[in-house]
## 1
Amino acid sequence: MEDYLKAMELLTVDGDRAILQKQVERITRKCKLQEKDEEIRSMKEEISSMRSQMNDVLEVLKIAKSNNGMIGRDSTMLDENHRMTIGYVDNNSQIAEVKIPLDGIQYTL
């Protein structure tokens, strides 16, 4: 009888350990999925913001193209090659520029 009780105790612990291990694995997977969901949500927000900013840039390009490079009464955005330069200064005080040829831009609204 003592042997039976010892065996039951060992089997029960192993059984509980297996159940606990499965629960830990399930919770770990759930946490990883939640992290991925948050990452996807964040990326979607970034993409939405970038789309909005690109729409703003395209609107400026549309205005510049329709006004022969003029964006205001006395301001031009074009260089001598009929390209518009868009630039910014990054966190390291480096200037980043993109030159866009207006002649190659097509608009669909």
Note: The chain has one domain: 2-104.
## 2
Amino acid sequence: MLTKALPLYSWFGLCGPANMPQAIVDKVAPIITEIAQRDETRKFLKIYAGEPFPGDGAALAKTQADTARDWAYFVKLADIAAQ
């Protein structure tokens, strides 16, 4: 029995190299957040039915973990074999 809806959306995040110095993260993150909130960014994303969802590294990690968990559930439900 299907117990939750299939999440039909996509997302992308900006990632840096492993062990990036926090000083660089702290400098770049507000710039990316500001770009995500610009009207022209919103207009561009709207063309593709998207919207900005800026957040920090912890928010991105949670989104990644939630997405992986959700799709693992549907793969199991559909009895799709690993390849």
Note: The two ends are 25 Å apart (CA to CA).
## 3
Amino acid sequence: MDTRPRSPTWARRLSYVQLDALSRAFAAWLQKKSGLVPGDRIALMMPNILQYPIALFGALRAGMGSSTPTPSTPAANSSIS
């Protein structure tokens, strides 16, 4: 029986220290390079991978809200405004 992880991401672990550092770096990028401002909302459209919590906490640190649309979300209701 093959017991290897199905995805390289599933084999990785992320410590709280790493999550803190990476989410701070993403927050800094959002604030300084993205053209977004605190209060803006961003859509996080990705599968359940390690980058998701980094992006979510980074957005929150930058003072932004986030939405996580799913493939089942009707197009008319998935706009971020």
Note: The chain has a mean pLDDT of 81.
